[in-house]
Specification:
Elements: H1 2-23, H2 31-50, H3 60-80
Helix pairs in contact: 1-2, 1-3, 2-3
Length: about 80
């Protein structure tokens, strides 16, 4: 159960990061922004390394959220035996 809540927390942090990318400077040193970046970088960095460059649009957060949701469903299915 803790793992499922952790996956949901990461999804929320990725959404927060998306919103912050529209309202905060990319070089911001705000502690909250840095915490969100530090928490989400280990998930987003490997996805970015294998995705093709799409120019100004970064699709890695969307891919990460989809992968986290799939993993969450697999874990719930395995936990409930269904």
């Amino acid at each position: 159960m803790i793992l499922i809540y952790s996956l949901r927390l990461f999804q929320i942090l990725i959404i927060v990061r998306i919103v912050l990318s529209y309202v905060v400077s990319p070089v911001s040193r705000n502690p909250f922004v840095e915490m969100v970046r530090t928490a989400t970088d280990p998930i987003l960095r490997p996805i970015r390394s294998v995705m093709p460059d799409t120019g100004m649009i970064d699709l890695s957060p969307m891919v990460a959220i989809i992968l986290l949701q799939v993993l969450e469903r697999v874990l719930i299915s395995a936990a409930t035996g269904g």
